Amino acid sequence: MSFQAYLDAVETKTGLTPRRLVELARERGFDETTKATPILEWLKEDYGLGRGHGMAMVHVITKGPRISDKHVGSGGAHADASDELWLDGAATNPHR
User: Fold this and answer.
1) Is pLDDT above 70 for 77?
2) Domain spans of the chain?
3) Smallest Cα–Cα separation from 21: which of 4, 38, 46, 1?
4) pTM (predicted TM-score)
């Protein structure tokens, strides 16, 4: 599953775009210095997200939407179309 597919699934599971979840995380005080565990606990408790989907959100909460270009266009199972993750909802993603 690509990184973007994880984020799209987070939207499906929570009803919130990844960008909205980042905003909610900021409101809770989570930022680039926050360790994964408290973010994962929040996402599990409030939204029922498991570790894989939670870790995708941890990345965008703590590191932003840019990912390594290692898998971009690789054609593999984890390939992403861009090194910039789309946080504004799957339906509006221009890379789809």
Assistant:
1) no
2) 3-72
3) 46
4) 0.90
**39-50 pLDDT per residue, tens:** 999 999 999 999
CA 80 – CA 5 distance, rounded (Å): 9
Find the radius of gyration of the CA atoms of the chain. Answer: 13
CA distance 14 to 33: 24
CB environment 15-54: b (16+ within 10 A), e (fewer): eebbbebbebbeeeebeeebeeeebbebbeeebebeeebb
A 10 A CB-CB count for 78 gives 12
93: exposed, middle or buried (Cβ count in 10 Å: 0-12, 13-18, 19+): middle
